[in-house]
Design goal:
Layout (H helix, E strand, L loop, with lengths): L1 H18 L7 H7 L11 E4 L4 H4 L3 H9 L7 E7 L2 E6 L1 H15 L13 E5 L14 H16 L3 E5 L7 H13 L2 H7 L1 H16 L10 H15 L3 H25 L16 H10 L3 E4 L2 E4 L9 E4 L7 H16 L3 E7 L3 H13 L8 E6 L2 E3 L14 H19 L6 H18 L7 E3 L1 H4 L7 H18 L12 H11 L1 H11 L3 H20 L8 H22 L11
Parallel strand pairs: 4-5, 4-9, 9-10, 11-12
Antiparallel strand pairs: 1-3, 2-3, 6-7, 7-8
Helix pairs in contact: 1-2, 5-19, 5-22, 7-9, 7-10, 9-10, 10-11, 12-13, 13-14, 15-16, 18-21, 18-22, 19-21, 19-22, 20-21, 21-22
Length: about 575
């Protein structure tokens, strides 16, 4: 569609130059002005000429009329000027010959491009805190991050996915104290991360107290936890062995969730990896005169940039998150020589990233503008905030299990003979949760209502996967067939082709805005257009052989595009449901 838009724009610009040679935009600028009207009666594409009125020194009505008079272009069936708009109606025959042919030829490459060829992108996402389970609050960074990785790869970038594990910090002192006081190795080996979480909740309740449960506060335990973490930092072998064990248990649990989502990472280097890399960056800050003392702490003053100071060292000389993040960014630049480094975290960290990005700039690193923070909104469940330390979480594995169980029950009732029911139920159940989450604009705060997330009616993941399965069923029933030319005879066929033609545009928009929801919404557009075509146009029963072959190939094309789009938003293809 972008190629056609540019061709149309070139002809429009030629006409505009006859009106005012100096006021006409470039073809690329005009192509970007072309819109998709909300009502098909207003055309398939439209140019709102009021955007040109100032530079062209003409009224929108005059401009539209001048462009429309005698306009002819391959791919355009007719064009007209209406109230300052230049409206274009696409040629169905051209859609069949060009769009359908291209999809069937390019297949899994359709919608992609090579604009990122030769460029490196590093993505930091998911990054759970070790010894804490995956809960619904982790879903955002995990699926948004992986979707952005897939989008970048789809347009030619080489991507490195980094799981920056939260595997260091005072919480490990707490966990070590809890394990030594109340832990049982055999129980933890059997119960895994759930047992670690129980210990973590218990130690936090013991330190802070829990009036509701009748637990008095014991601040001495907090001192013990800090002491145990200090021993860990100093290399105490007993504590290091426990720490490694906690990490291994946690990773084993996380991998189960990643497998369900179809996600893999290229690096699991967590916070602990950068412990010995921070002093060099602190020294660089000191040498450059950027560090100042504030009540004993070392800071970088950012008042000039309308930000609070960035804390680099505590009073006792220990490092903080910005210190670690700066060291990690320097290491990643040296290791991967990235063209872009993307960080997917909660919007609550906006200030944190703005601060240390600015510090990187002040340190003289000329790649500071390659750092990108992609924030997303907070998640609550049925209106309640999530908090691991108090045990108020909805575990992702439990949510996935509920969805899978529900899908399995439906399949047992409606398609009891389906092969690989467990695999299909997992693909559809997990897909339902992911689709529900990614359908929202990423900056929006989400109140996750379980009943809604597990609903399979309306514009849902299961609806999209069922539509894909429907395209596969048509192909299976049609068998092998060839088609040398395509005959587009029904408006539903042309409408579907118009939607399929927009795929690359939606990919580019999602990439530019770091917004996977654009792809989810596009999937729903394809499903709606395909199902209108499916219900209104006989496919396998069409009497004319040429029309029948065209419609089968159109179903195949819809399946190709849906499958490609699924791959960009952590959804699995389901050939049968």
């Amino acid at each position: 569609m972008q190629t056609l838009k540019l061709t149309i724009a070139e002809q429009c610009v030629d006409r505009l130059r006859t009106l005012n040679p100096d006021g006409a935009p470039t073809a690329a600028e005009l192509a970007a002005m072309l819109e998709y009207p909300p009502d098909p009666k207003m055309g398939d594409l439209a140019l709102p000429c009021f955007k040109l009125s100032k530079t062209m020194r003409r009224s929108p009505v005059q401009i539209a009329a001048a462009i429309a008079e005698g306009f002819a272009c391959a791919g355009v069936e007719r064009a007209e000027a209406v109230n300052g708009y230049f409206n274009l109606y696409l040629d169905p025959a051209w859609l069949g010959e060009n769009v359908l042919t291209r999809i069937l030829a390019e297949r899994e490459k359709y919608g992609s491009s090579d604009i990122g060829a030769g460029k490196e992108v590093v993505l930091d996402y998911s990054s759970p805190n070790v010894a804490k389970p995956f809960h619904i609050g982790h879903l955002g960074t995990t699926v948004i991050g992986h979707s952005l990785k897939c989008l970048h790869e789809f347009v030619g970038y080489h991507c490195t996915g980094i799981n920056y594990l939260g595997d260091w910090g005072t919480q490990f002192g707490k966990l070590i104290v809890a394990y030594k006081k109340w832990g049982n190795r055999e129980l933890i080996e059997q119960g895994g991360i759930d047992e670690l979480v129980a210990l973590y909740v218990r130690i936090n309740n013991a330190i802070s107290g829990n009036e509701e449960k009748g637990i008095p506060a014991d601040p001495v335990l907090g001192d013990e936890a800090r002491a145990e973490f200090h021993k860990l930092e100093e290399g105490d072998e007993e504590n290091l062995a426990l720490w490694r064990w906690f990490v291994d248990i946690s990773l084993a649990e996380y991998e189960k969730t990643y497998k369900q989502l179809g996600i893999t990472f290229d690096s699991y280097k967590g916070e602990s990896f950068y412990t010995d890399k921070m002093p060099a960056q602190v020294e660089k800050l000191r040498e450059q005169g950027l560090l100042t003392l504030d009540d004993g702490a070392s800071i970088v003053n950012l008042e000039e940039y309308n930000m609070p100071p960035c804390l680099i060292l505590k009073r006792d000389g220990s490092t903080l998150y910005p210190t670690r993040d700066i060291a990690a960014a320097v290491y990643r630049k040296q290791t991967y020589n990235f063209d872009k480094a993307i960080y997917v975290t909660s919007a609550g960290q906006n200030l944190h990233f703005a601060q240390w990005f600015k510090v990187v700039e002040l340190m003289g690193y000329d790649w500071y503008d390659q750092l990108v923070h992609v924030p997303y909104g907070t998640v609550s469940v049925n209106g309640a905030k999530l908090a691991t330390r108090t045990g108020n979480v909805v575990l992702l594995k439990d949510l996935f299990a509920m969805a899978i169980e529900k899908v399995r029950a439906i399949m047992d009732e409606k398609n009891p003979d389906l092969q690989n029911k467990d695999g299909v139920a997992e693909a559809v159940g997990v897909g339902a949760i992911v689709f529900n989450y990614l359908s929202n604009n990423r900056n929006r705060d989400i109140n996750f209502i379980l009943e809604d997330a597990l609903s399979f009616e309306g514009n849902t993941g299961p609806y999209a996967q069922y539509t894909y399965a429907r395209t596969c069923s048509i192909l299976e029933k049609a068998g092998e067939l060839s088609c040398d030319a395509y005959t587009v005879t029904a408006p539903e066929e042309a409408d579907l082709l118009k939607v399929l033609a927009r795929f690359n545009e939606r990919v580019m928009a999602a990439l530019e805005e770091y917004e996977p929801s654009y792809i989810v919404r596009y999937i729903l557009e394809v499903c709606a257009a395909f199902n209108r075509f499916y219900h209104n146009c006989p496919i396998l029963t069409a009497e004319d052989a040429q029309i029948r072959a065209t419609r089968v190939k159109l179903a195949e094309a819809a399946g190709i595009v849906l499958g490609n789009a699924f791959g960009l938003v952590c959804m699995k293809k389901t050939e049968k449901i």
